[in-house]
Amino acid sequence: MKLLIISDTHTDSITKLPMTLRDAADKADGIIHAGDIVGYKVIHDLLKINPNVYAVKGNMDPALGNEYLPRKRVLEMEGVRIGVAHGEGSHHGIENRLLYSFADDNVDIIIYGHTHSPFWGVIDGIHFLNPGSHTNKRDEPRHSYAVLTIEDGKFDAEIIKI
After folding, report:
1. Torsion angles phi and psi, residue 4, rounded to 5
2. Collapsed DSSP state (helix, strand, coil) of residue 10
3. What is the pTM for the complete model shown?
4. Is residue 3 within 8 Å of 30, Cβ to Cβ?
5. Most buried one in 9, 118, 120, 143, CB count within 10 A?
6. Model confidence over 95-119: pLDDT tens digits?
7. 67 DSSP 8-state letter
8. How far is CA 31 from CA 24, 48, 67, 132, in A?
């Protein structure tokens, strides 16, 4: 199973996303969006490309009510438990706050956004994946997204720089 991992799209239209990302969405088994979507139409259009879209609400998504997007979610895919949240507050210590948020959920991976900085690593025995942003790289040298591969209960991720 290959999952496209995106965050911080900060746009109102899928046409403003890079073509490489739209192609990856079409080829993936599912899409996880870690918030700051800004326009719900982006999720609606992603669902037209791929029917398996799992998104959470970011701090820039106040108009998107909780009935549409939860603040956090836990998914189980092929025996791997995935926590998804956007993250909030200072970028410093964000992973510790996320660990606390998912402490009772027994997750293997926490997918998050907010910082716009790609990261794939292990903290306190939990894998963390931040895809960065493919539309707003801030201080990063390049835009990015990630692909999470899950097979037989094992997983690995790759940060794709564009």
Report:
1. -80, 125
2. coil
3. 0.94
4. yes
5. 9
6. 999 999 999 999 999 999 999 999 9
7. T
8. 9, 12, 19, 15
What does the chain come to in residues? 162
Q: In 3-state terms, what secondary structure has residue 19? A: helix
**Bridge pairing between strands 2-6 and 144-151:** antiparallel
What is d(CA 64, CA 71) in angstroms, rounded to the nearest whole number?
11
pLDDT in tens, 17-51: 888 888 999 999 999 999 998 888 888 999 999 99
Nearest C-alpha neighbor of 72 from the set 49, 104, 29, 118: 104
Total number of domains in the chain: 1
Tokens 């706050």 belong to which residue? 97
| The two structure tokens encoding residue 70 | 């939860």
- Helix ranges (H only) for the chain are 19-27, 40-49, 94-101
Phi, psi of 120 (to 5 degrees): -135, 110
Sheet holding 154-161, edge to edge: 53-55, 30-33, 2-6, 144-151, 154-161
CATH number at residue 141: 3.60.21.10
